[in-house]
Amino acid sequence: MIREKLDSYYSFVFEKELMDEMEQVGVYKKLRENELLVDLGDQMKGVPLLLDGAIKIVREDKKGEEILLYFLEKGDTCASSFASAISNGKCGIRAIAEKESEIVFLPKEKLDEWLVKYKSWRNFVIDSYNIRLNEMMETIDTLAFMRMDQRLYKYLTDKAQIMRETTLNTTHQDIAYDMHTSRVVISRLLKQLENEGKIKLHRNKIEILQF
Amino acid sequence: MIREKLDSYYSFVFEKELMDEMEQVGVYKKLRENELLVDLGDQMKGVPLLLDGAIKIVREDKKGEEILLYFLEKGDTCASSFASAISNGKCGIRAIAEKESEIVFLPKEKLDEWLVKYKSWRNFVIDSYNIRLNEMMETIDTLAFMRMDQRLYKYLTDKAQIMRETTLNTTHQDIAYDMHTSRVVISRLLKQLENEGKIKLHRNKIEILQF
DNA sequence: GCTGCTATGTAACTTTAGTTACTTTTGAGC
DNA sequence: GCTCAAAAGTAACTAAAGTTACATAGCAGC
């Protein structure tokens, strides 16, 4: 069961022996939409390997204000969890299933061991970190260089990509939370994007017309 | 020569055998103030280990606009270089010596080999990535949650910390570049900070009174 | 001490984003 | 179809940040 899932996404990534081990020690888990996978301050006992679905990674400051960092897709892992698991430190992010998702949980005891044994694992870990670093840089670019209307449009198209749908089921308020701004601002800019012909607004739904 | 430098900062980090190898293959380099270490798009042939000094890491968008990501201190390495070196990819950042600095350049051929051979190297690499991820998150927090005046004050105190000086030799324009805003805005907010008694302004110099 | 360049100061204005307060629309559940 | 709560629309205002344009200050080099 785990094996088929693993095979279908990771057979070109990992060596057969590593897949065998993963099958042995990995714990399969299905996440419902909006289910919390990792919370701020959690001490991870392993790392999740995403088999299917989409996970939202958000950052929260002391005052409880949130901002979306990025999304994980199948084939991704959570670098921050890896960090937390290996160093017994705390996780600085929150991970929530954006839709129904499937993961394999790999216990932390194996993580270092596999780094020695499997080149494919080393590559995967390093790649994951790199992808995450790049994702973070993109987030920083977005925050530093783009205006709110551009950020919003990017948010919508990125999310549509991740969700593999051209119509997003979301409210203006939800977007405002993700982007750390107010609902009124989002409503205003969405209306503007609609006037530009890029999107079409419905209740609880946003249809994306241009990518 | 390299060995003494390495010993003084890394003897509690790396195993003796690894230090021996580093001494053999590492290339020592001294950087002048403002010397460019890594440029955007560079394909790294190794990773720099910082022995002393301070390196500024900046991000640039397509239009050539910059923003400071973070600083490296002695004991740090550039995770983005590591990424680039190991995967033969391009580096997404620019690294500039903020003051005279010393580095050891470790050739990329050894990087993976050492991951297998030395636990201390594995820990170091993973730690470096984690530190960098956290640093990036802090940058994101700053951009997303703080107002310009707070960001500026944080910039000044952070930089003073890194440079180990309470008086910074910098112009308003330079700060504006780092923070991706305009000189007028910085001058205005600096004046405000001065009125609050947190700093004292001089020509080409900013004295920090409160930390 | 004069020249000229760079850095800094500052006023006035524009734009963008955030806030408040209220209205209107929509759809689920009765 | 009516009720009601959640979602969305909107106006009016405030605040923060960016822009323009020009004035002044400080210092290096003559």
Detailed description of the structure:
The structure is a homodimer of 211-residue chains. Chain A is an alpha+beta fold. Chain A folds into 2 domains: 2-144, Jelly Rolls (Sandwich), CATH 2.60.120; 148-208, Winged helix-like DNA-binding domain superfamily/Winged helix DNA-binding domain (Arc Repressor Mutant, subunit A, Orthogonal Bundle), CATH 1.10.10.10. Helix content of chain A is 48%, strand content 24%. The first copy, chain A, has helices at residues 2-10, 16-25, 79-87, 108-117, 119-145, 148-163, 172-179, 183-195; strands at 27-31, 36-38, 46-52, 54-60, 66-73, 94-97, 101-107, 167-168, 199-202, 205-208. In chain A, the strands form 3 sheets. Chain A has a 4-stranded antiparallel β-sheet with strand order 2-6-4-5. The first copy, chain A, has a 3-stranded antiparallel β-sheet with strand order 1-7-3. In chain A, strand 4 (54-60) and strand 5 (66-73) form a beta hairpin. In chain A, helix 4 crosses helix 5, helix 6 packs across helix 8 (183-195) and helix 7 (172-179) crosses helix 8. The first copy, chain A, is elongated and about 55 Å long. The two termini of chain A are 37 Å apart. The mean pLDDT of chain A is 94. Chains A and B meet through helix 3, helix 4 and helix 5 of A and helix 3, helix 4 and helix 5 of B. The structure holds a DNA duplex (30 and 30 nucleotides).
